Amino acid sequence: MFDTGNTGFMLVATSLVMLMTPGLAFFYGGLVGRKNVLTIMIQSFVSMGVTTIVWWAVGYSLCFSGGEGGIIGNLDKAFMIGVTLNTVSPFGSGNIPEFVFMAYQMMFAIITPALITGAFSNRVKFGAYLMFLVGWLVFVYFPFVHMVWGNGLLAKMGVLDFAGGIVVHNIAGMAALASVLYVGRRKVGDSIPHSIPLVALGTGLLWFGWYGFNAGSELRVDAVTGLAFLNTDIAASFAGPVWMLLAWIIEKKPKFLGLLTGAVAGLATITPCAGYVTPTSAAIIGILAGIVCYFAVNLKNRLKWDDALDVWGVHGVGGALGVILLGLMATKAVNAAGADGLFAGNSSFFVTQLIAIVVSSIYAFTFTFGMLWVINKITRVRTSEGEEEDGLDKSLHGETAYEGI
Description:
Blueprint: H1 4-31, H2 37-64, H3 98-116, H4 126-149, H5 153-157, H6 165-183, H7 196-215, H8 223-251, H9 256-270, H10 279-302, H11 311-329, H12 347-378, H13 385-390, H14 392-397
């Protein structure tokens, strides 16, 4: 009944995507100041527990059960009711157990809200964050998973998103921007980044895990799996040096942090395209990711948005750019299950991708802003100036990452 090769591969891919959340914790942990390392890291690690509970209880069912052509699914598979050891995944054609598909998708759910935390680092109460985590999953993430990957509204419109340009990066980036504008600027300056080696470790783990993120999204082992793997590496390998080169020209220094940030921007941008474009297109996508995301971060700085760790500029802009470039560069020559883009003569697909990215951006931004307003009525979202001064590690969690702080 089950294909053991595909099942084994998907278990490895699931493990790789799981590793990305600790990788993100290290990436963000190195970017913040010494007094706030544990605070930003716990926001990633706690998602591994809380999101798993929500996903098992209702999330998987709301995303992948019922609701064909709609915005959200139903609760037929809540608590995994009716899913047995012999149940084959209804998604993909790899003949893998539904339990494996559920676990793989769960890892995406875990990391997506954790991405947002880099935007409001050093200034959000932990209790408010936990409420935000659950609310954002239920009202933003789950609907878009269903609409794009669960045979929902956007899928029926013909929208393609191979591994999460809309579902993960764009909506997280737009939620990050809404969070920044709602919460406001930090009152206490922070000497960031405090440890670029930690950022490098996090980047390495993210890059490694991203092979499972993108290649695993084929849900089986075939030529498209290998294509997605290769395209992932090519895009990151072009984007990182391009970002570094721009920094070298404009800021007069070839910065290691720029190389690392650029690589992540390339990974985010290739994500929706990975299994639908040629390796040459992946190289072009990587170059454009390095350029566009670099200048998006510069724009953010000029506008004085306190997106501390550039979530909007890297993930929000990168995800949107990838979805748009997919509308241009997609070709059925590499994946018959995909589509031809504008460059292959299909203008309607390009328009569909544009509509999808506009809708996802507006919804994620608007709902996130409104949700934070509601949460603030229940419990204070913003930390006090005194808590920021002491550092959130000590003031909120009673712990410190380093002696003498």
